[in-house]
Each structure stands twice: as structure tokens, then as C-alpha cells.
Amino acid sequence: MNPVHPVNHHRPDASDPLGLSHRFELPRWTFLTHHARVLLEIARNPEVRLRDLAAGIGVTERTVQNIVNDLHAAGYLSRERVGRHNHYTLNADQHFRYPTEAGLPVRRLIDMFADRDIDGSPSAASPQRESPGPPPGG
Q1: What is the domain range of residue 60?
Q2: What is the pLDDT of residues 101-112, one digit of tens each?
Q3: CA-CA distances (angstroms) from residue 90 to 75, 84, 95, 127?
Q4: Torsion, CA 114, CA 120, CA 121, CA 127, rounded to 10
Q5: Which end of the chain, N or C, is less packed with Cβ atoms under 10 Å?
């Protein structure tokens, strides 16, 4: 097994805006594709710069551009130019593409992972979900 291990808690810099290269030893393979990782990062931050997204998941900016184009063409996201930046809106009700998951919306994946930081801890940027109160009349 090749788990992700914290290595050094180091502040991000311009070459590593999400601060990942110094924090983790990345595994040889993962269960999520780059397309899934891009979708999740956009869910976490709809105004993320592609440069930062690429550095965060360990691929080139051109790869992220191609993935965003794929996701846009397939109806998973739309983009709007806001000044010099893009704002992305996800269509979380769009279904997965592979036949065995085709009946499920990508919202399931987003809900499972989007509120987590890369190290697996709850994201400071995501709202805390309140625990349900006592049942009515109880």
C-alpha cells in the first residue's frame, strides 16, 4: 500500500500555490482520475485559476485546460468571464459517463469529496454541516 504521507507543513509559494509539493509524497496511482480532481477543485473554488489547479493536482496547465474543455463540452460545467478571470458553474445533476454509474449524478462525487482539503481534513472554506437536532416532538 502506498498511502499519502504528510512530509513538511510548508507555506505555499508562487511555484506551488496550493502548497502541495512540500506537504505530501504522492502515490503512484489513485482511484480518482484527473477529470474528477479538476471537477472537485472547481467545486471547492469556482474561481480557481487553472495555473493553481494544475499545480495543486500535479499536471500541466495545458492538461487542465483540456480537461476543463472536456467537462464543458460534456455539460458538466459552464464558464463565465469575469474581468480577467473565469467563474465556473458546475452542473452537479449531470450523470456519470461510464455505463455502470450512468444513472448517478456527479453530485454524489462532489458531495463526498468537495468539502475536504487535500490532506483529508474538513476544509476551512467549506461550511460546517450542522448535526440534526432532536426529532420533532422528541
Answers
A1: 32-113
A2: 999 999 999 999
A3: 9, 20, 12, 18
A4: 10
A5: N
